[in-house]
Design goal:
This protein is mostly beta strands and about 80 residues long. It has no helices and 6 strands. The chain has a 6-stranded mixed beta sheet with strand order 1-2-5-6-4-3, with no helix packed on it. A hairpin with a 2-residue loop joins strand 3 and strand 4. The termini are far apart.
Length: about 80
């Protein structure tokens, strides 16, 4: 099985899943960078908002080399061609 991976400093990240309209619950008094939490495969996942100020239309779940899963909230998901 192939995975999308990313190197972040000394950490390796794997894209675990891309979910459409994940059910994310707000966390009272959470920092501005946290959109909320959700359940994925029976475990709580923290979703980070980056620039997503509204409802997350999709969630990108990444797994780090320590086994932790984190969510990135996004307003849209799509495909783009890259040129150098």
């Amino acid at each position: 099985m192939e995975y999308i991976t990313a190197q972040a400093g000394k950490k390796m990240l794997w894209v675990e899943a891309i979910l459409m309209k994940p059910e994310i619950w707000r966390v009272p008094d959470a920092s501005e960078e946290i959109l909320g939490i959700a359940v994925y495969n029976g475990k709580l996942v923290v979703y980070y908002r980056f620039d997503c100020k509204q409802e997350a239309l999709c969630g990108i779940l990444v797994r780090d080399d320590g086994g932790g899963v984190y969510g990135i909230a996004a307003a849209a998901v799509g495909e783009e061609g890259l040129s150098r």
